[in-house]
């Protein structure tokens, strides 16, 4: 079994007894979804959760549940990737002010930067009972909700919550040093170029060592087996010469359907997950990222952008929108490229990493 799929329950139990007062013993199950940081459902088998939504006869579901999210084991391709420390910081800042801000995030309990506990830094947060939809067409909805009108409610809720997040005064909640003020896209293009080159070198080296599966050996490269994405530098140069208004806010960095938890029965978001790429950035990047994953026109892109503009007091048409969409495609191509690089060295977190490595933007 991969080291990314296991967790030292003995060390974790000792640590959590000391920090947050769990009862123990613990059980752990790795979430299959998610491509970057290994994430585990932890159940405190000796506890009882008075707030559990589960009725009898499900005794384990009456136990207190937590989520542990950690950096992958082994040498990381990029020093700036897998930033669980940043995730913890932004979640705590938003969570400490949740009554005022009304930004739905899971409560975080502790951050551990001592590698002797689980091998890499990790943090612990609450488990939120709800629904995570993986299909942008919302096929997981019950049959009676498979209508354009109801599906639109879920995406409209995502836009509502996103607009509210972008309205937060990040300085007032202690995030003034969380990212540079302005110049987000230029910084991101420089950072993506560095990350891409590191990933390309990793893919090339593993390919030479015959560690890369045959069906991935040339997939997602420029065809010359150097590990690079096709036309990557051309698009980077085009974006560098193009213009997008420099709006500034908290940027989630990977805001999309499967990174939010919906209420068990209602189109209401209970929690926003996966803040690894969050920073102080351009809010258009979040909106473009969310919309690019939609495979059906329900609701339409135009209606969602209009709603965002209305909620955010911005003029429509949204200036810089084409730029934002192009950048979102480039960034997610680099993310898929990174999955392929981690897969090539046995560091991929998800059980579906091979599929994800070849299905991003091209």
Automatic annotation (TrEMBL):
Protein's name in the database: Aminoglycoside phosphotransferase domain-containing protein
Aminoglycoside phosphotransferase domain ranges (all copies): 29-297
Domain of life: Eukaryota
PANTHER family: AMINOGLYCOSIDE PHOSPHOTRANSFERASE DOMAIN-CONTAINING PROTEIN (PTHR47829:SF3), HYDROLASE, PUTATIVE (AFU_ORTHOLOGUE AFUA_1G12880)-RELATED (PTHR47829)
Protein species of origin: Smittium megazygosporum
Pfam families from the UniProt entry: APH
InterPro entries linked to this entry: ACAD10-like, ACAD10_11_N, Aminoglycoside_PTrfase, Kinase-like_dom_sf
